[in-house]
Design goal:
Layout (H helix, E strand, L loop, with lengths): L1 H8 L14 H21 L8 H17 L12 H15 L6
């Protein structure tokens, strides 16, 4: 029905996703939430001048890993998702004070 409407009026519908990856929506939602969580972690003091590293790592594992794996079938499928790994790497780099940690 949408195709007929589009053909009749000579317009096309914008695609919802930019690639044909079936998990793109879930991956985008997870990375967006992880970026927000990374900002919250910085505010909580999970960086080199903040909490002790062992405590900060436990907080990161509790908050960030739960977001990364929440409601997601991406991981059980055995996919390597670069977008999520990049955000998680930024969070851990910020913890240890490595360059590129945000």
């Amino acid at each position: 029905m949408i195709k007929r409407f589009s053909d009749w009026h000579g317009i096309t519908q914008k695609p919802k996703f930019s690639t044909c990856h079936p998990w793109e929506g879930a991956i985008n939602a997870i990375t967006s939430k992880l970026r927000s969580t990374a900002n919250q972690l910085r505010f909580l003091g999970c960086h080199t001048q903040g909490l002790p590293a062992s405590l900060a790592k436990n907080i990161i594992d509790t908050l960030a890993l739960s977001v990364a794996t929440k409601n997601s079938e991406v991981w059980p499928l055995g996919l390597h998702v670069d977008e999520i790994h990049k955000v998680m790497n930024l969070i851990y780099r910020n913890l240890i004070g490595a360059p590129g940690g945000g």
